Amino acid sequence: MTFLVGMALLCLAPLVHVLAVSFSASSAAKAGLVTFWPVDFTLQSYRFVAERPEFIRSILISVERVLLGTLLNMLLTVLIAYPLSKDARSFPRRTLYVWIFVFSMLFSGGLIPWYMVIKETGLLNSIWALVLPGAVPVFNVILLLNFFRGLPKELEESAFIDGGGYWKSLWRIYVPLSAPSLATLTLFAMVGHWNSWFDGLILMGTPEKYPLSSYLQTVVVQMDIQSMIGSDLASLQQISDQTAKAAQIFLGALPILLVYPFLQRYFVTGMTLGSIKE
Questions:
Q1: Closest listed residue to residue 131, CA positions, set 188, 200, 177
Q2: Terminal CA-to-CA distance of the chain, rounded, Å?
Q3: Any signal peptide, and if so, which residues (predicted)?
Q4: pLDDT above 90 (res 89)
Q5: How far apart are CA 1 and CA 15, in angstroms?
Q6: Which of 246, 274, 174 is nearest to 18 (CA)?
Q7: Phi, psi angles (nearest 5°) of residue 65
Q8: DSSP 274
Q9: What whole-number distance in Å separates Cα of residue 175 and Cα of residue 165?
């Protein structure tokens, strides 16, 4: 138990340090005086970030991406996993299709063909370029179809006896009983879309269309925030590259930190139930 608590604290330490730096004055951060508690507490870094239209715009783009992408991911995951969960008598070529999906998860065409397909379909510089290429998360499909296969077949048979078809069986029996797995997969989809930064850099032609993770990557790695602050002495005393970047990093992680506790109780259950069968 002590070991697990220690590992948990070790994982939290970097986030706590970033939070402390974001609330500290520029001089303290530059001098390396900040560890896990703010030094010369100030909110200037957060005020600076809140006034930047690029940051606000990137957040709105990421929220739009998460909403569209998660909804599309979950809808297609359910619609694909349900028929693939049937046995060979109900779906004769079920095994073939499963292997096709597994093959696509293990092997891809490469970065250049991926980009060319998106370009030729006219998706560049649009929100759909961030959503449609990854619309079918194969790993999530495999987890959910294994969960569906673990549900008693008698439930679906009773629905057929009562006059229901496959659609009614899916939405009134399978989906309600799959809440733990669906919550887990929803968390996977949300985190994946929120944290994805590489596709935004490649597919969006202008920084104004970057999602938050792509914007933060340019800020943390490339952009000199000091040049944005200017030469105002009062600002330089309170804000620096370290404090402003720490504030933006923490704000970027905050939405997931707020959502995760509500879905965490489903996480272990959903993963366990989704991996019982092959």
A1: 200
A2: 33
A3: 1-31
A4: no
A5: 22
A6: 246
A7: -65, -45
A8: T
A9: 14
What is the rounded (10 degree) CA torsion for 194, 199, 204, 207?
A: 60
Type of residue found at 26: S
Q: What structural domains does the chain harbor?
A: 53-226+255-273 (1.10.3720.10)
Separation of alpha carbons 240 and 247, rounded Å: 11
Helix intervals (H) in the chain: 2-22, 26-30, 44-50, 53-84, 94-106, 111-120, 128-131, 138-150, 153-161, 166-169, 175-177, 179-195, 198-203, 212-217, 225-229, 233-238, 241-273
* pLDDT tens by residue, 23-81: 887 777 777 778 888 887 888 888 877 777 888 888 899 999 999 999 999 999 999 99
Instruction: Say how far residue 150 (Cα) sits from the centre of its chain.
Output: 27
pLDDT digits (tens, 9 = 90+) for 243-275: 877 888 888 888 877 877 776 666 665 555 545
> Can you tell me the distance from the alpha carbon of 235 to that of 257, in angstroms, rounded to the nearest whole number?
30
Picking from 182, 144, 146, the residue whose alpha carbon sits closest to that of residue 266 is: 182
The model's pTM: 0.79
Helices 241-273 and 179-195: angle between axes, nearest 10 degrees: 150
* pLDDT tens digits, one per residue of 128-138: 999 999 899 99
Residue 40 DSSP code = S
Both tokens assigned to 104: 């696509």
Residue type, 48: F
